[in-house]
Amino acid sequence: MFQTELGMTPIQLSQASSTRWLSYEEAVSVFLQAYSSILESLIVEENDRKCPKAHGFLRVIAEWRFVYLINMLHLVLPSLSTRLSGENIYREPE
């Protein structure tokens, strides 16, 4: 909804799997693409509907530490998912 209003293509958030590094990479990437829409949605929920959960989520994801961490993960996870995939995990370093 907010993605369309902001002129963005709607993106479905994905859930990371605890057993696949690639799913974390995808989840972080999609989250970053939708970040402004997520912020806008939480602001509306917090202000218009007085939602305490939206307030809590907004406080966390708007903080610079979270923004730094999610961007760092976005840079590091592609390498990790390649190195820690099932076929490469037991191979000797070259």
Précis, in short:
The protein has helices spanning 2-5, 21-33, 35-49, 52-61, 64-83. 66% of the residues lie in helices and 0% in strands.
H/E series: HHHHH
| Major beta sheet summary | none
Count the helices. How many? 5
Structural class: mainly alpha
Key phrases:
94 residues; single chain; elongated; mainly alpha
Account of the protein in words:
- This protein has 5 helices and no strands.
- The protein has helices at residues 2-5, 21-33, 35-49, 52-61, 64-83.
Helix-strand blueprint:
Blueprint: H1 2-5, H2 21-33, H3 35-49, H4 52-61, H5 64-83
Helix pairs in contact: 2-5, 3-4
